[in-house]
Amino acid sequence: MAKHYKRAKDKRSLRLKLALILLVIAAAVYAVALKNQGRYAKLAEPEAVPDKITASVPAPEPKTREWVVVSADEGLPAAQERVEASKAQPPVCGYPRADGTPLLAILIDDGGSQMKLTKRVAALEIPTTWAIMPYRQYSKETAQLAASKSVPYILHLPMQAQSDKDSETGKFIIGRGMTADEVRAKTAKALDSLPGVVGVNNHRGSRATESRELMEPFMQVLKSRGLLFVDSRTTGKSVAYDAARKAGVPALQNRGFLDNSTDKAVIAKRFDELVRNAQKRGALLIICHFRPSTVAFLEELNARYKNVPVRFVTVPEMLALTDNGAPKKK
């Protein structure tokens, strides 16, 4: 009887020890689980992400851009305001828009004197119009290149500037002292030297374009040939645009020179000013030149022009879409 009781007591003691061991193991497992749960929860919280990771993947912020409104006629800052470019919807350039997207036409002057820069411009996708000087070494070759790329081109006709003396006729084709017949004859000859032109704009001409006696016979030739005219507005006293309208010649006015500086950064800033002016007016024609810094800027613009908040058009397209440069009334 004593032996049987002792064996039963030993069995109960063994079971108790096993139960205690199991309780200890369960407690340890539970503790480990709680510890891991806290660790994973912390990793899921944004503030627990290491600083290096946070710095390498910054949260995107809406970008804003400074635009400066510039009077295209005087070229002086008129006002400055911030435009949230991130809110602007990029236009589909090259197609008619009925949503009021402003128009921007780029006229590139002084073509015909070299071909290296001209070929670089010809490779651009941005709609442009070329103004080609008559009687230059590469005038006809430039016109042929433009035609091959479906780029409209106009005659860039030298006219007398304020700094030119009447005797310095080698500097210009149309100037003071010429008769109406001489103006018509010289204009016709220059036009005949570049077949395929769609119009004319003045090269220099701050003196000639102030004279109605010169502009009226000049416009008669353009009217008879069905050509357009762009007043480069090298003087605020120009009567050329008004003379064109009175003669029934489709006409536009230059509203800003893009590249008065050879600094590409300055050109880029000026472009932003002119884009803002286009947004204000609804339609804008600007002039630049076949120059190294200008062409370099245009090549950079070519990669992003579809995101600029304007629709790029050629000079003939602008005339078709506007009332001589003013947005058409609905």
Structure commentary:
The chain has 330 residues and is of the alpha/beta class. It has ten helices and twelve strands. Helix 4 links the parallel strand 4 (129-132) and strand 5. Helix 5 (180-192) crosses helix 6, helix 6 (212-225) crosses helix 7 (240-247) and helix 8 (264-281) crosses helix 9 (292-302). The chain starts with a helix and ends with a strand. The model is unreliable at 36-98 (pLDDT under 50).
Give me a quick take on this structure.
Helix content is 42%, strand content 18%. By secondary structure, it is an alpha/beta fold.
Helix/strand layout:
Layout: H1 2-44, H2 51-56, E1 65-70, E2 77-83, E3 103-111, H3 116-122, E4 129-132, H4 139-148, E5 153-159, H5 180-192, E6 199-204, H6 212-225, E7 228-231, H7 240-247, E8 251-253, H8 264-281, E9 283-289, H9 292-302, E10 311-313, H10 315-321, E11 322-323, E12 326-327
Parallel strand pairs: 3-4, 3-9, 3-10, 4-5, 5-6, 6-7, 7-8
Antiparallel strand pairs: 1-2, 11-12
